[in-house]
Design goal:
Radius of gyration: 21 Å
Structural class: alpha/beta
Helix content: 25-40%
Number of strands: 14
C-alpha cells in the first residue's frame, strides 16, 4: 500500500499509510462546562454509567494498586475463568481486550486487510469506519431501515466474496434499536460460513425486549458468530478499559494473537472479576437506569418528539440539520450531548437531575 510523505519540523520525511488519508478521528464526549447561573453542568454525551463502582469493587481496585510495578497477567486468566463460568462457555472461547472497541480492532486485524470488505449498518458505532480504515479494508455501509433499525436483508445482499466480517450492533449505537432473534436467525442463514458475524452487544444489560436477539445464544448455534461485550457501560468501569469477546476456538485464538500485550491492566482485571461477583447489586442499578430511560422516553414523546424505541442507556433525537444548533442550545444550559452533525443527537440516561434538565430543554426547544 502506498504512503503519504510528511515533513516534520526537523526537515526529515516520514511515510504515513494512505489508508489513513481522510480517516475520521474518534470523537469522545466533551466534558461538561458550567451552565448559566448556579446550575451544575452534566455530561450526557458518552453513555457512561452515572453511578460509581460498588464499594467492594473500589476496595478491590485499591488493593490491586500496590502491584502497579508489576505487569498484569497477560492472558487475564482469572477474568477469563470468571467469564467462562458466568456465560457457561469454555475458557478457550473467551478473549479480552481494552474495552469492546479494543476487541473490535483485534477482530479486524485478525480477519481483514487491503482488498477485503467489512459490512455494517450506518449510522452505527462511530469506531467502525475507523478500525476498518486502519486495516486498509473497504467499509461497506448499509443505510438503516425506517425507524433507525438494521436492514439485515440489505446487509445480507451486500455480502460478496470479498466480505470478511459483518458487524451487527444491537442495541444500535447511537439509535438504540435492537435486532430481533428472528431477524438475526434469518440473517445468519444467509451469511456464508467463512464470513465472521460480530454481534456487538455493549449495551446488552439494558435490554428488556423479550424478542431481542441474544448474541451468546447465536454463538452457541453458529461457528462464525463472535460476541462483543464490555464492562464500561452497565458495570461502570469505563475508565479501566476492559471488554471481551466470546467466539469459537479459531477466532478466539486469533483475537489473543492480535491483542496488545498486557493491554488489560491488573486493576481492570481485578475490578471486572469483583464486578461479576457482585452482578446482582450492579443490575439493581441498571434497573434504576432502565426506569429513568422509560421516564425520559415517555416525557419526550409527550412533548411531540418522534424517537426510536431504545433498549440501551441512551435516547436518539433525529434532528437532521438542527443537530449542531440543539447541541449548542443544551451546552449553553450546562448539558453536554453528543451531536452527529446532519443526523441527530444521542443523549445518555444519567442522574435524575441531568435527565430532568434534558426534559426541560427539549420542551423549551420544541416550544421555540
Amino acid at each position: 500500500m502506498g504512503a503519504a510523505i510528511v515533513r516534520n519540523m526537523s526537515g526529515s520525511q516520514v511515510r504515513i499509510r494512505k489508508a489513513l488519508d481522510g480517516l475520521p478521528s474518534y470523537k469522545p464526549g466533551r466534558p461538561a462546562a458550567p451552565g448559566a447561573g448556579a446550575e451544575p453542568a452534566f455530561k450526557i454525551s458518552s453513555n457512561e454509567n452515572p453511578y460509581p463502582p460498588l464499594p467492594g469493587v473500589l476496595e478491590a481496585v485499591a488493593a490491586s494498586a500496590g502491584s502497579l510495578n508489576r505487569y498484569p497477567d497477560m492472558f487475564a486468566t482469572g477474568l477469563v475463568s470468571a467469564l467462562a463460568d458466568r456465560f457457561d462457555v469454555p475458557p478457550e472461547h473467551v478473549a479480552t481486550g481494552t474495552g469492546s472497541v479494543g476487541v473490535l480492532q483485534q477482530v479486524v486485524q485478525a480477519t481483514a486487510a487491503e482488498g477485503d470488505e467489512v459490512v455494517y449498518a450506518w449510522r452505527s458505532f462511530e469506531a467502525y469506519p475507523i478500525v476498518v480504515g486502519i486495516s486498509g479494508a473497504t467499509a461497506v455501509q448499509v443505510p438503516l431501515a425506517p425507524g433507525a433499525r438494521h436492514d439485515l436483508t440489505a446487509m445480507a445482499d451486500a455480502i460478496t466474496d470479498r466480505t470478511r466480517v459483518v458487524f451487527v450492533c444491537t442495541p444500535n449505537n447511537p439509535t438504540g434499536q435492537v435486532v430481533t432473534r428472528a431477524e438475526l436467525t434469518a440473517f445468519l442463514r444467509r451469511v456464508p460460513e467463512d464470513v465472521l458475524v460480530v454481534v456487538d452487544e455493549a449495551y446488552r444489560e439494558f435490554v428488556r425486549d423479550p424478542e431481542a436477539a441474544d448474541g451468546i445464544e447465536a454463538y452457541r448455534e453458529h461457528g462464525n458468530v463472535c460476541v462483543l461485550r464490555t464492562f464500561s457501560k452497565a458495570y461502570g468501569l469505563a475508565g479501566l478499559r476492559v471488554g471481551f469477546a466470546i467466539a469459537h476456538d479459531e477466532v478466539a485464538d486469533a483475537l489473543r494473537k492480535t491483542a496488545v500485550p498486557f493491554g488489560v491492566s491488573g486493576i481492570a482485571q481485578r475490578a471486572a472479576v469483583e464486578s461479576l461477583a457482585r452482578e446482582a447489586e450492579l443490575l439493581e442499578r441498571v434497573e434504576a437506569l432502565v426506569g429513568e430511560r422509560t421516564r425520559v422516553y415517555d416525557a419526550l414523546v409527550g412533548q411531540g418528539w418522534e424517537i426510536p424505541h431504545t433498549e440501551a442507556n441512551f435516547v436518539w433525537l433525529a434532528l437532521g440539520g438542527q443537530t449542531v444548533d440543539f447541541a449548542r442550545f443544551c451546552e449553553d444550559a450546562g448539558l453536554v450531548v453528543r451531536p452527529f452533525a446532519g443526523d441527530g443527537c444521542r443523549v445518555t440516561i444519567a442522574e435524575q437531575e441531568a435527565n430532568d434538565r434534558l426534559i426541560r430543554l427539549t420542551g423549551e426547544w420544541k416550544a421555540r
